[in-house]
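Changelog note: in this version the structure field was regenerated for every chain. One regenerated record is shown below for reference.
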Amino acid sequence: MDLATAAADLLLGAACPGCGRPSRTLCPGCLAEIAPEPALVRTRPVPVVASGDHEGVLRLAIVAWKEEGRAGLLRPLAHLLASSVVEVAGTSTRPVALVPVPTSRRSRVARGADVVADLAGTAARLLRYTGLDVDVRPGLRVVRRVADQSGLGARDRARNLAGAFAVRSSVHTGGRDVVVVDDVVTTGSTLAEAVRALAAAGRPTAGAAVVAHRRRR
């Protein structure tokens, strides 16, 4: 443990969300546990790739980043999203436009940021370091209020989100493969609504990339 980490632990109670050891982000052991393993988890309405399952250390890290404001976790989670994007893009040589799932104004105020847009932006920067032509196009907006998705089944989630998104007229994705991005996929209803809105505006989607897949019990 370095002196800076020790000081953070003493002054702020900074701890690894996976194991509780003093750390400003994930400790090396927990970071190793969430090494990216991108895999196809859904095929409709577009291929959806996740880099891990929403359980264990990865679930704890996502909750700490998204709900507790642990900004230091953004980069390792963006690394996972970037791996998913590469899997979606496959062998295509076309440039990529990442379109984040939109966040409601209520959520932005509660969290102090558009966390999915921040995630997409960091993932895009990591991908550009590797030489890929990737840009973020925040092309979707929420056009009506929706209920909390927690506890809803697949059909109710789909009904809840139907028609909730629209495309910003000022956003252009021409010449790029469009990849919708989010942090977690469960039933796929949020991604499906994003794909629907983009298709309705004449912007077809190549696929979707997420950090984690939450399996329905």
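Spot check on this record: The chain has a mean pLDDT of 87. Strands lie at 39-42, 48-50, 96-100, 134-136, 140-142, 165-167, 177-185, 207-213.
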